[in-house]
Amino acid sequence: MSFLYPISSLFFYRLIVMAWMLLGEALFLFRLERRKHFVLRVILAVLSCFLFALIFPIPTSIAGNAFYQMFMFLLFFVFTYFAACAVFVGDIKQIFFSCVCGYTSEHIAYETYFAISNFLIYDELNKGNMYDPETISLFQGPWDQICYFFSYIIIYWLIFIFFANRIHPETNATKRGGLKILVVGTLFLFIDIVLNSAAVFYGTIHYERIYMAIVASINVVSCVIGLCYLFEMFYSNHVKREYDIISEIRKEEKNQYMMSKQTIDLINIKCHDLKHQIHQIGSEQNIDDKTIKNISKLISIYDSSIMTSNSALNVILNEKSLYCTQNGIKFSCIADGSLLDFMEEEDIYSLFGNIIDNAIEAVTPLEEGKKIIHLKITKTGNMISISAKNSFEGEVKIINGLPQTTKNDSTHHGFGLKSIKMICEKYHGTLNFQTIDNCFNINLLFLEQEK
Questions:
Q1: DSSP character for 409?
Q2: Taking the chain, what is the end-to-end CA distance rounded to the nearest angstrom?
Q3: String of DSSP letters for 179-245
């Protein structure tokens, strides 16, 4: 037993590094979708990780060996990865990405501490050694200890602000380019574990304070650059995937627009003819005017009641107006369709379709009398304003500049607002959202331009 578990600095340090690894990985994992009995799973996962670190053997004869250190930290990472999979729901590649980033954060924090300590604190004749199998001295003194904890706290805080805070459940880019992310992530592990173990092993044999400090500083810079690259690659995949999805949606919307245009035109013609036929039959059969008026009113539900000078806008407004009428939603519109002549027809159909669909979704659960949607298209000076207002209940959260979807499956929803934003940017417009007294406002501004 004494051979496997000598009471030394490494005995305690392996528990400390496990704690920092778990905290670093938690920075990137905590927003992912959680499994049932989350709290219980977290407790069991954390206890399992510490138990694994505690029982991991420490052979005295090779404790300073780089291969031993490499093997130990690699198994620590693997164990925490499977623990994360047991706690969080998600693509295994996304969890792997988060764990690699967490482990790299721990490595950056340690190397930052190591560089500062070697530059300012360490004494070559009386240095502390966390990997020493023969002593229990983790630090040289109180200043070294303060430097250690402050390095971790500050680095973790900075990494959370600039990196981990960008991860959200709906941001899953690993479905496209997942193999590339796995390869780069594995390379990161190689840099973090193998090269660091070799450097530490060299330091235990030929300790040179300034040399080790410079190596640690280079290690920190390299890992930060690598983390930036990994995130850039991850999110470029995410943006590419979103663009492809929105492009497919836009293609479907274009086809839907052509079908809706034909349908609306056909309904208008049939309703117009049917009204004349009813009046003719009424006069021939001596049906009273009140009955004819009631029948005509019923038919008018399917007739085009909103007419602007823009055919694409007419199609989408009448399509949505019909739906609102059938579902007890009060839909009002003040629109100068000529102001939208600078837009392509497909963009008009998609833009207003998504705006009104989001409003309909928000008012549908409300009680009768509160289901209100108002759309306004006006011009002020040389600015074209598009505003939509609808009542709602609850709280609207803004993430990445867009309201968060209220649907449970956020991964496959929320593209309507992103499509609105894409069209707005296409025509160099501005987009903003407001919530005032249970009224949600979406506002778009465009500089007047020629089509």
A1: -
A2: 82
A3: HHHHHHHHHHHIIIIIIHHHHHHHHHHS--HHHHHHHHHHHHHHHHHHHHHHHHHHHHHHHHHHHHH
Pairing state between β 330-335 and 439-447: unpaired
C-alpha dist (Å) from residue 193 to 181, 186, 220, 391: 18, 10, 13, 55
Can you tell me the distance from the alpha carbon of 190 to that of 182, in angstroms, rounded to the nearest whole number? 12
User: Taking 50 as the threshold, does the pLDDT of residue 410 lie above it?
Assistant: no
Kindly state the tokens that stand for 100: 């690699």
- CB of 70 within 8 A of CB of 64? no
User: Over the stretch 230-258, which tens digit does the pLDDT of each residue have?
Assistant: 777 776 665 556 655 566 666 666 656 66
φ and ψ at residue 156, rounded to 5 degrees: -65, -40
Residues 444 and 340: their CA atoms lie apart, in Å, by 12
Mean pLDDT on 291-297? 60
User: Is the separation of the CB atoms in 306 and 314 below 8 Å?
Assistant: yes
**Burial status of residue 412 (CB atoms within 10 A of its CB: 0-12, 13-18, 19 or more):** exposed
Measured distance CA(380)–CA(3) in Å, rounded: 83
Residue 356 tokens, joined:
């009104």
Nearest to 148 by CA among 68, 156, 103: 156
Q: How many CA atoms lie within 13 A of 267 on its CB side?
A: 17
Type and span of the H or E element at 100: helix 92-120
pLDDT in tens, 166-225: 776 555 545 545 566 667 667 766 766 666 666 666 655 566 777 778 878 888 888 888
Query: From CA 151, how far away is CA 155, in angstroms rounded?
Result: 6
Enter the tokens of residue 184.
């780069």
Strands 330-335 and 402-403: unpaired
User: CA-to-CA distance for 272 and 260, rounded, in angstroms?
Assistant: 18
